[in-house]
Predict the structure.
Amino acid sequence: MRPRSADEIPAQGKPPRELQYSLKLDGFRALAFVLGDGKVVLQSRSRRDLAPEFPGIAAHLREQLPPGIVLDGELCAYRDGRLSFTDLLRSPADRARAGVPVSYIAFDLLAVPGRDVRALPLRDRWELLGTALLDAEPPLQRVLATQDEETARGWFRDLRDAGVEGIVAKSLASPYRAGSTWAWRKIRHMETSDGVLLGVVGPPDRPRALVVRLADGRTVSTSPRLTPAQAREVGALAEDRAGPLTQDPEHGPVRWVDPPLPVELRQLAVRQRQENATFVRVRSEG
């Protein structure tokens, strides 16, 4: 279930309140569940198991969750008092050496032992999530959420320096359904925008740059060159989707990516009549 972008935090209705406002965190979105044999799975939206990349979280969830519970949430790393998306791209050993902790922040519940609860309204799923995590200890916790509009606006204003991306406003009546929905709306700080990764420039496992489609439909190349961490991130997700090398009249040698991937981009800059977008990351969540 993916929220759609909105420009403003929506107003709360009169009691009974209709919306929940929760923090939009900067991390890896993943379903978390424990199989009957004790194996922990952290399933990304691309269905890749992230558990081997976060062994500490996997071990903690094995102790905290019974088989049959399925959580939806975000893997988040912390450095110097703020969320650090870049540290999620580092190896577990690198994070351990740097003393960077990682948490799993749950914001929804899809199943409890023996029961699929996706058809229930969010209001009921939220209560079940609180019960499921009643005795849970960090680094597993429930996301900060409220039904008070002014509190949400305060979070949006005051928690930006802590790396919080914005607010997600969700209908308390909404069931959990696959795909994007206006029942959930994300309101982000505006330095970045959504785009689509169409092609890679350079080796598909470590690209130098990307060809992306902007929200207004234009297709541009990213600049500056991807950092090593960004190249690894893109390569891990795009290598198997990249086609043969082709010569594009506008962008030069490109390997087109099929299916495309959602990405986050920084605002455009104009350099010698060539418009560019700066790559931030592949979007792993809505």
In short: Residues 268-274 have pLDDT under 50 and may be disordered. The first strand starts at residue 2 and ends at 5. Helices lie at 55-64, 85-88, 92-98, 122-132, 149-158, 228-238. The radius of gyration is 20 Å.
